[in-house]
Amino acid sequence: MFFVSNAGSANISAYRLNPLGAPQLIGIAGTAGAGTTDSAAAGHGRFLYVESGGGGTVDAFSVAGDGARTKVGTVSVLPTGIEGIATTG
Question: Residue 61 in 3-state DSSP?
Fold first, then answer.
């Protein structure tokens, strides 16, 4: 399973590989801020953090085994225009 940040539409797309090895869209989840540019997984893939530089926010999602994401929080005290995100674990 992998995730793609979509800056123009302020959301993230989740994909998995189908039996032929081609990407298959699982679903799309919205984010709090514009300019969704970077994301990072943590907790062995159980959490996804998405940085929205245009809005100065980081959204936190829990990730289910089937790829479904549930927003669990937003940090919104970051400066507008931030770039990059990293996690440990």
Answer: strand
Task: Identify which of 41, 42, 43, 36 has the alpha carbon closest to the alpha carbon of residue 58.
Answer: 36
Strand partners, 36: 52
List, as own/partner pairs, every contact residues 65-70 make where C-beta atoms lie below 8 angstroms and the sequence separation is at least 24, other chains included: 66/26, 67/1, 67/14, 67/16, 67/26, 67/27, 68/26, 68/27, 69/12, 69/14, 69/27, 69/29
Contacts of 68 (CB under 8 A, 6+ apart): 26, 27
Residue 32: per-residue pLDDT: 66
**pLDDT tens for each residue of 40-65:** 989 888 999 988 877 788 889 999 98
Q: What is the pTM of this model?
A: 0.82
**Within the chain, which residues score under 50 in pLDDT?**
none
